[in-house]
Specification:
With 133 residues, the chain is of the alpha/beta class. It has two helices and eight strands; from the N terminus they run E-H-E-E-E-E-H-E-E-E. It has a four-stranded mixed sheet, with helices on one face. Strands 5-8-7-6 form a four-stranded mixed sheet, covered by helices on one side. It is globular and about 45 Å long. 31% of the residues are buried.
């Protein structure tokens, strides 16, 4: 597995920060993600209160419309397959769109269990557990 410390952070744009906060507060909770920073233009998430902020949701600094990248997605680690299931269910319950239900993806490796969703701005997200059941 890659070393997660390789990344400083990931940022996605939103066109409605309050809606995005509600979505990410719910969808990231089963993965241990909590809001670690917030202002009127940005919401940051990390693992637990006081954790390093590694995922940012922002109103674009150039004040243009936030758009998504084709062929890109952000994958969050999950400690269990149940957390993947909960992420997917909560993402959909909070207005997200299904991009692939929870399940094994053995073409990556035998224990790769993931689910995909789009957030309210169309950003493609994934929760993945690399551990055996």
């Amino acid at each position: 597995m890659p070393d997660a410390s390789f990344f400083s952070h990931v940022t996605v744009g939103t066109n409605d920060l309050e809606r995005a906060k509600a979505f990410y507060d719910a969808a990231l909770e089963p993965l241990g993600g909590v809001q670690t920073y917030g202002s009127d233009v940005v919401s940051g998430y990390g693992l637990g209160p006081g954790g390093q902020t590694v995922f940012w949701v922002v109103l674009p600094f150039d004040r243009q419309v936030a758009t998504v990248g084709n062929g890109t997605h952000i994958a969050f680690n999950a400690s269990t397959r149940a957390a993947v299931d909960a992420f997917h269910a909560l993402a959909l319950a909070n207005g997200g769109a299904d991009e692939g239900p929870p399940g094994l993806r053995p073409h990556y490796h035998a224990d790769y269990y993931g689910a995909y969703a789009r957030d309210l701005d169309g950003n493609k997200l994934q929760a993945v557990c690399h551990l055996p059941a």
